[in-house]
Design brief:
This protein is of the alpha/beta class and 326 residues long. The protein has two domains: 175 residues, no CATH class; 131 residues, no CATH class. 40% of the residues lie in helices and 22% in strands. It contains nine helices and ten strands. Strands 1-4-9-5 form a four-stranded mixed beta sheet, with no helix packed on it. A four-stranded mixed beta sheet has the order 6-7-8-10, with helices on one face. Strands 2-3 form a two-stranded antiparallel sheet. Strand 7, helix 1 and strand 8 form a beta-alpha-beta unit.
Length: 326
């Protein structure tokens, strides 16, 4: 599943993806286009555009400090009465990530909850919002007939977002606001930082899931195959050079999140994450892969290879070790 923001000029005619021309006399009014998609083999892809759904209901929930959770939905009664409970989970998620990182998070969330008799397995969701929209995150989730929002019988799609995807993405918001940490980009040489960035976000996500919903936590760990990392030693050669462009397969990509989780979890158990972020800020400049190695040695006395060995030791060779629990 992917979610990206793209710049687009309203009123332009598209020749092909990413290439536009402007007709004489047209004004440029820029906005953001958000897309989220999932593919399942040869299943036909369903296009979902909220602009074609005039009956969506809009509710707004306060997240504090001027932040808003805006939910756009087509939920039948009485499901819509449970939306304040969703907002409570989101507030706790913000509080958890802020507490775990020692950093405030600005901006709110635009969340679509769409009710289907059977949710689409292959889809492409697209929505346009103004440049000045107050949302850090925009997502679509699905609820099937017979599912509840939360708790037993809750939508797995919605619960995966609330207890795993959202804390992960809020972690990205925190790290993106740290100008000292170099981020990898598509088409750029690897900076050697992606394992730390994604590992930090995974630690936050799994920590929140463990605190809130142990079932979602176990499901998330299983999805990353963390308990069997030792069976795939060749992936250790990939994790430190991992970039958006070089994951060999979708499964390898998911597994590398698991490796990154184990690495950062072991590091931050020895040196708290808020202190580590503060240390990066004190140093200034652009923190790259080599700088992370030096910081690891300074804060723990370990080399990367030793951290890797200890991370694998924490996972163990049998059932998932309880040492992975936050």
């Amino acid at each position: 599943m992917t979610g990206i923001f793209q710049k687009r000029a309203a009123g332009l005619i598209s020749l092909m993806v990413g290439i536009f021309f402007l007709l004489p006399g047209e004004n440029r009014t820029y906005g953001r286009t958000f897309t989220q998609s999932a593919r399942r083999g040869n299943l036909p892809v369903e296009t979902i555009e909220p602009a074609t759904m005039p009956d969506l209901v809009v509710t707004r929930q306060d997240l504090g400090r001027g932040r808003v959770l805006e939910i756009r939905h087509n939920l039948p009664e009485p499901l819509d009465r449970k939306l304040p409970e969703v907002a409570k989970v989101v507030r706790r998620c913000y509080a958890f990530v802020e507490g775990a990182t020692g950093r405030d998070i600005d901006g709110g969330i635009l969340l679509y909850i769409l009710h289907y008799a059977q949710r689409p397995r292959a889809y492409r969701f697209q929505v346009e919002v103004p440049d000045d929209a107050p949302w850090n995150e925009i997502r679509v989730t699905f609820l099937e007939t017979g599912e509840s929002l939360l708790g037993e019988g809750g939508s797995r799609h919605l619960n995966t977002f609330l207890y795993d995807t959202l804390p992960h993405e809020l972690g990205h918001d925190v790290l993106a606001s740290r100008p000292t940490l170099r981020h990898d980009g598509h088409g750029q040489p690897p900076r050697g930082t992606r394992w730390f960035i994604e590992g930090t976000c995974e630690v936050l996500a799994k920590g929140f899931a463990h605190a809130e919903n142990p079932t979602a936590w176990r499901r998330a760990l299983a999805r990353r195959r963390i308990q069997t990392l030792h069976r795939r030693p060749w992936q250790a050669d990939l994790v430190f050079s991992w970039s958006p462009d070089n994951a060999p397969s979708a499964q390898d990509e998911s597994d590398l999140y698991g490796w990154s989780y184990a690495l950062v979890k072991n590091w931050t158990e020895r040196y708290p994450l808020p202190d580590l972020l503060a240390l990066m800020e004190e140093r200034g400049g652009g923190v790259g892969g080599r700088d992370l190695e030096l910081l690891l040695r300074e804060t723990t006395g370990l080399e990367l290879e030793q951290l890797l060995e200890q991370a694998l030791g924490a996972v163990g060779t049998g059932p998932l070790s309880l040492r992975l629990a936050p």
